[in-house]
UniProtKB/TrEMBL annotation:
Molecular function terms from GO: flavin adenine dinucleotide binding; oxidoreductase activity, acting on CH-OH group of donors
Keyword Flavoprotein annotated: yes
Sorted UniProt keywords: FAD, Flavoprotein
Protein name: Glucose-methanol-choline oxidoreductase N-terminal domain-containing protein
Native species: Diploscapter pachys
Cofactors required: FAD
């Protein structure tokens, strides 16, 4: 993790430093809620993981009444926004080759990342070459919004004037900061908490260091899955005593106590002004115009318009939303793309 991330998390200089109200299900604790207080917003201080979420997330959006935002409709915008270090070029069905946001596959050459990745051969969650492509599920190298050791920061400030020359020449500005940027989050993965779940509901960030950092059942499963993975052969030469919750915490009750005491947010608030159909009383934003229902000339384009949270980190989905919104405001739309998507063997 870049040192700057930890610095910004502990300072109010570039961070709004919010806290939630006390949460009754977390023993009354308030959760720390950092947010970027600078051009580029939270993308200026985030951990630079590039994660798109699962195709089903966007198909769910459409089912939730957000017409025109299915996976096949949003994939062209993920690609348009991106230049990926391992793209195969214009015919790559999943990854972009000439967009403004550089995503680089983490090298993950630290021996602990290598051990983590090797576990994909020994555990049923498996290994995936590209969690943002054909298959999300499995352990994987993480893609990072880093190029030549520099953070990629998105300034999406021009969308509301999308007809202007400024926007035509690109709603993107690159402010390369964080010389020598690197991320210790170069591997991770996705798993399903049970075979009955259609797509991953657990995300791992594998971090070769320690950090002090509803769905109790999923969180318990995540702890147990992590234990299973660290018990595998590739970690034999590295494994020490479990630091937290500790080997004595085994029962559901003990794990729940630990979760309530320790769980924190991974900094992805969203969905507070969700897109939805006119008939949905909870919808705030019209997905065909990005306009706010009942208010003239007010558009919203950020993570708050997600109708439900994408499974993963939210920077890449937010950038996709901005890219697609930009076309919506210009009355344009890219053709749908429907490449195949991996389904678990026990699902059809
Ligand atoms: C510490 C941290 C680490 C993260 N790591 C990752 C990661 O590795 N990968 C990933 O995909 N995502 C990550 N995220 C999440 C990701 O950065 C956000 O989901 C994304 O930036 C959301 O974009 P947004 O435009 O909705 O909001 P923001 O980027 O937060 O933009 C909101 C803007 O509004 C401004 N603003 C807010 N309140 C006010 C106010 N009262 N007055 C004036 N201006 C205001 C802010 O200054 C900011 O410029 C991380 C977030 C944080 C905080």
């Amino acid at each position: 993790m870049p040192a700057a991330l930890m610095y910004n998390l502990g300072s109010t200089r570039y961070n709004w430093f919010y806290k939630t109200t006390p949460q009754k299900n977390l023993d009354g604790r308030s959760i720390y809620w950092p947010r970027g207080r600078v051009w580029g917003g939270s993308s200026s201080l985030n951990a630079m993981c590039y994660v798109r979420g699962h195709p089903y997330d966007y198909d769910l959006w459409e089912k939730e009444g957000v017409e025109g935002w299915s996976y096949s409709s949003v994939l062209p915008y993920f690609k348009k926004a991106e230049t990926y270090s391992h793209s195969t070029g214009p015919n790559d069905p999943y990854r972009g080759h000439n967009g403004p946001l550089i995503a680089t596959r983490g090298s993950a050459d630290h021996p602990l990342h290598q051990a983590w990745l090797a576990c994909g051969r020994f555990h049923k969650i498996g290994y995936t070459e590209d969690m943002n492509g054909f298959r999300q599920e499995g352990v994987a190298r993480m893609d990072m919004t880093i190029k030549d050791g520099k953070r990629q920061v998105q300034h999406l400030c021009c969308l509301s004037s999308s007809n202007s020359e400024q926007t035509k020449s690109g709603a993107w500005f690159y402010n390369q900061t964080g010389e020598g940027a690197s991320s210790h989050l170069e591997s991770g993965g996705f798993a399903r908490s049970s075979d009955t779940v259609p797509h991953p509901d657990i995300q791992f960030h594998f971090l070769p260091s320690t950090v002090h950092d509803d769905g109790l059942e999923e969180l318990r499963t995540a702890i147990r899955l992590s234990r299973e993975i660290f018990a595998l052969k590739p970690f034999d030469e590295f494994r020490g005593e479990e630091l937290a919750p500790g080997k004595d915490a085994q029962s559901d009750k003990q794990l729940d106590q630990f979760i309530k005491k320790a769980v924190a947010s991974a900094y992805h608030p969203s969905c507070s002004c969700k897109m939805g159909s006119e008939n949905d009383p909870a919808a705030v934003v019209n997905p065909k115009t990005m306009g706010v229902y009942g208010v003239e000339n007010l558009k919203i384009v950020d993570a708050s318009v997600m109708p439900s949270i994408a499974s993963g980190n939210l920077n890449a989905p937010t950038i996709m939303i901005a890219e697609k919104a930009s076309d919506i405001l210009k009355g344009k739309s890219l053709p749908k793309e429907t490449p195949p998507i991996w389904t678990p063997p026990n699902k059809t």
